[in-house]
Amino acid sequence: MMEQATIRLLAPATILCLAGVAHAQEESGNALEEIVVTASKREENLQQVPVAITALSAEALERAGVNKLSDFIALTPNVTLRESYRAGEVFITVRGITTSQNGWSPVTYTVDGVQATSIDAINQGVLTDIERIEVLKGPQGVLYGAGAIAGAINVITKKPTNEFQYAAKTSYGNGEDFRASAAVSGPILEDKVLFRIGGYHRDFGGLIEDTDGQPLDHDKLNKANARLLFELGPVSIDFSGSYADAHSGAVPYQQINSPAFKDVFNDATRPTRGIRGYEDRTYKDASARLDWDMGFATLTSVSGYSEIEQQLYGSATFVKPPTVSIFGPVGGPADPFADAFQNTRNGFESYTQDLRLASSAGVPLRWLLGASYVDRKAVDFLGLGGLLTSTLERTYLIARPDVRNDEAWGVYGEVNYDLTDKLTLTAGVRYDEDERDSTQYSDLTLQTRVPAADGTVTQRSVDTKWQPKLVVSYRWTDDVMSYASFTEGFRFGFYNTGNATAPESVKNYELGLKSTLLEGRLRLNAAAFHQEYSDQQISVAIDTPPFRVTSNTPEQTFDGIELEASAVLGAGFDASVGVGYIEPDRELPPGVSQYSVNLAINQTTQIAPDWQWKSRADYRRLGSYDNVLQGAVYSISSSAEVNFSTSLTHGRWSAGLFLKNAFDHRQATDLSIIGPTITRLVNMPRSYYLEISYEY
């Protein structure tokens, strides 16, 4: 209770402090930079969009040392990310709505307008060449489709330029962490044909070692991307593609004697391994975007294609034999198996299409009509078995391939009408439909089908939903706007090794305020919401095949708030604060934190005509959350992390030092109990790296 009371008092007190400091420095500070977002499929000022949005610019991402998905999510109130047993399987939570394993993400994630069709396609290990990231909170189904039950994330990359630009960056840190990236942009035919190409390489030795001194979290990643832009008068055609290949350590879980040891770190709780294993991932995508300015409206077509192939091979006991696995003892003198292993494979092949017609901006009546299509094929293979003691060959005791297909489409429309110069009404609606099926096979040749529990060879179902939206916004002054909205969100159901999970939906009622105060030196945004969440999808691990079952729970409600403020403090300093809090009508769902707090302060000093010094400190506190394991509830402790960065820039050169988890806070981030095995996943220890970059 004391922790909750502290959070409730912290937000207004901090914001009042920022406002007071900004007012005191009114004469010496500069205005905050205007942020342009494309949340409504149009370019608009962040403060004019009646949606709760956290927007991160390229400079903010650079200062915070954002390199991957979890880095920028950690900067966003009421949004969290938990890692899992493999790199592609992460759990994103927004306003209490989270992810079920093998299910759809609770947010629609797009890169330059191209939708990711699985969580594996979202977490690709590295973010490169980023111009801006927008995190929209609350259901965004009308414009972003059935996956946007809790929100949407837009990643906007840097466009090709009409002048030659070059950028290169390299860094080295503890854990033998070497990174290098480069990008080149310029014209092939001036003003008409422009290009941008880039590459990234990382070779990370690892920071989490087993008792033999071998790292379990090592990672080697290579990525290349290219973009070609044709500017043909009223028509713009944008082609892009990327390829990524990763080889890393496998399932860095640690076996512990009981959940009571989840946050104990000493020699007795260091991980041990018989099989260390590996994880291989490849990702490739291609997209084409066409924008045609027809005068009265703009026609936009966005087509995307992606392929993901990944394999994980590692220990199924998470300890050196002799021990006990889910199949019984392994590694004993009379046992035929030296150790137990898991071998999983996942593959996705997806095609997406979005076609829309949007009226011109700057007129009282604005409208948008569109249609979307997703075709996704997924192959999941779960293999478990033992290594024969005599030959160390793999013997599969469980081999379960599943092939899942989704074919989804939707039509949508939205209208914005300025009833007066201050009052605007927005109304929209979308219809989504997904036809899905799942088939189990006897092995990876996919030749012999295995009937499901209900006797059917292939299970099929169809999910449909209308999603309405109604927003009223009022501009009190040029710098203060409030809004009231009602939106519905929807997420398709899914199959998990023959187990069918029904779709879920949410109704969101929201009041919001967006304000820019003190002549642009203070930005203060707030939202209060009430959510009615129906048929929530729950995924629970069990100790018998298929080792995970899914279900749906009855309706639950959440009330919550979000506060975000940024202020110019003067003398080269600016600060920001973000607070998110939710209050459920009963216990929180598994994996959901009740609150999050973000604080950051930036400093910029011109120390000489060509020399600039920049620094940043940020703090993130996240509330505890529960795991439900074999009928019992185990709590994951609240966490606090502090990061620092400082850099010196001279002309086109920059050198910076980045420190993550500065005070080396260690704790478990996930618990798993399957049969006799209790394991934990832990956060990363303190890390640091020196980075040198050049831009021309």
Task: Explain the overall architecture.
The chain has 696 residues and is mainly beta. The protein has a single domain, classed as TonB-dependent receptor, beta-barrel domain (Maltoporin, Chain A, Beta Barrel). It is 6% helix and 60% strand. It contains 5 helices and 43 strands. The protein has a 22-stranded antiparallel β-barrel. Strands 3-8-9-6-7 form a 5-stranded mixed sheet. Strands 15-42-41 form a 3-stranded antiparallel sheet, with no helix packed on it. The longest helix is centred in the N-terminal third of the chain and has 23 residues. It is globular, with a radius of gyration of 25 Å. The N terminus is likely disordered.
Brief summary:
With 696 residues, the chain is mainly β. Helices cover 6% and strands 60% of the residues.
Q: What is this structure's SSE topology?
A:
Elements: H1 2-24, E1 36-37, E2 44-45, E3 52-57, H2 58-63, H3 69-73, E4 79-82, E5 91-94, E6 107-111, E7 114-115, H4 119-122, E8 130-137, H5 141-144, E9 151-157, E10 165-173, E11 177-189, E12 193-204, E13 219-232, E14 235-248, E15 254-255, E16 278-293, E17 297-315, E18 323-325, E19 328-330, E20 337-359, E21 365-388, E22 394-418, E23 423-441, E24 449-450, E25 458-477, E26 480-491, E27 494-496, E28 499-501, E29 504-517, E30 522-534, E31 536-541, E32 548-553, E33 556-570, E34 573-584, E35 595-608, E36 611-622, E37 625-629, E38 632-636, E39 639-650, E40 653-660, E41 668-674, E42 677-682, E43 687-695
Parallel strand pairs: 6-9
Antiparallel strand pairs: 1-2, 3-8, 4-5, 6-7, 8-9, 10-11, 10-43, 11-12, 12-13, 13-14, 14-16, 15-42, 16-17, 17-20, 18-19, 20-21, 21-22, 22-23, 23-24, 23-25, 25-26, 26-29, 27-28, 29-30, 30-33, 31-32, 33-34, 34-35, 35-36, 36-39, 37-38, 39-40, 40-43, 41-42
